[in-house]
Write a structure and sequence with these properties.
21% strand; 60s Ribosomal Protein L30, Chain: A; 5-stranded mixed sheet; Alpha/beta knot; 247 residues; alpha/beta; 7-stranded parallel sheet
């Protein structure tokens, strides 16, 4: 196992860029993860682990093609984009899931800006067997390190993809039933609506669903909350909706 002693080493520069730049992740086809637990999850999943940089050896086998390097904790701290860096950084190959190819229960995230919320929703979707998570409207990158940490390994298992409004319209034309979570007049109480086997859209906490997505919805639902409360955190609302969709 080769030891890296400089932050200017090409491996270090590559990992730092993966953590900092969405465009670089997309260009290189890799994303950055951290921690032994995530590395173990990745090794058990059908993802390609490209590079591992650790302060000590790894106690479980890695794929033969994985590049393994050793370094000091100070270098790990300088490379990690997260405040509480762990002792391992590693990169994985981006998995291309593609658009949903069958009807089922899908979650559409419209314009969610917080990567932590995106990661938490991917985690919940995976826990309850949601067929896919679709991102549109400039959502935060699911491969952002904060999203990956919040997903707690679900990033390796859950099917998800990015789609634009024209691609969503194609799903609508193909017979997908769209349901929108909304706070406007005419929304039905979620407790009284069957939402399983639907594509359920959840919007930005501040502005809600975009008009383009709302126009696709066959039905709109709301989560009943106390009248003095304006809204719920997007990840919390998604968790309630996902539970109801699979109940």
């Amino acid at each position: 196992m080769q030891k890296i002693t400089s932050r200017r080493n090409p491996v270090c520069l590559h990992l730092k860029k993966l953590g900092a730049s969405r465009s670089y992740r997309e260009l290189s086809g890799e994303y950055l993860c951290d921690g032994i637990k995530l590395l173990e999850d990745a090794s058990k999943s059908n993802v390609e682990i490209v590079t591992v940089l650790a302060t000590s050896g790894v106690s479980f086998p890695l794929p033969l093609e994985t590049r393994l390097f050793y370094t000091d904790r100070s270098i790990i701290d300088s490379l990690s984009p997260l405040k509480s860096a762990q002792n391992i950084l590693f990169s994985c190959r981006i998995t291309e899931h593609g658009a949903p190819d069958a009807k089922g229960t899908h979650i559409l995230l419209d314009g969610l800006q917080d990567p932590g919320n995106v990661g938490a929703i991917i985690r919940t979707a995976n826990a309850f067997g949601i067929d896919s998570v679709i991102l549109t409207g400039g959502c935060a990158d699911p491969y952002n390190p904060k999203a990956i940490r919040a997903s707690m390994g679900a990033i390796f298992r859950q099917r998800f993809c990015n789609m634009n409004i024209q691609e969503l319209k194609k799903l609508k034309d193909d017979g997908f039933r769209f349901v929108g979570a909304d706070l406007g007049e005419g929304c039905k109480n979620i407790l009284r609506v069957k939402i399983k086997n639907s594509l359920i859209a959840i919007g930005n906490e501040g502005s809600g669903l975009s008009q383009e997505v709302l126009s696709l919805c066959d039905e709109r639902i709301r989560i009943p909350i106390a009248p003095e409360c304006e809204s719920l955190n997007a990840a919390v609302a998604a968790g309630i909706i996902i539970w109801k969709a699979r109940a």
